[in-house]
Amino acid sequence: MHSELIEIRTGSAETVVDLTSRIKAFLRGIDAVDGLLNVWVPHATAGLAVIETGAGSDTDLLAALRDLLPADDRWEHRHGSHGHGRDHVLPAIIAPSMSVPVLGGRPALGTWQSVCLVDTNTDNPVRGLRLSFLTG
């Protein structure tokens, strides 16, 4: 098994960060061939999604999350910025981990698919991303 923790700077705004190029670089760096890549975000307020990016889907996802999880006073969890409690509900909807098949050293993603970090927590501008490659 090969595993690495990568730092992702998300800034101070809600964001969707395309991780695909970082994942490909990790796989190249370990000379991966065939196996399974586990992607894990060790945070209570972030998640991972496989979506199309660059055509508005990332913006649409953030808009849908704002509709589903408004940043208001309804949340019991109240530390941090206004409405921060919703950020702690996010990983129940956008999971903090996923597995991606790797074939021939490349993630077996569809043509328009990208692995993305989804972060609505504006209080934490730096995230960790654990990549673990397993072969069998």
UniProtKB/TrEMBL annotation:
SUPFAM superfamilies: YjbQ-like (SSF111038)
Position of the signal peptide: none
InterPro entries tied to this protein: UPF0047_YjbQ-like (IPR001602), YjbQ-like_sf (IPR035917)
Family: Belongs to the UPF0047 family.
Protein name stated in the entry: YjbQ family protein
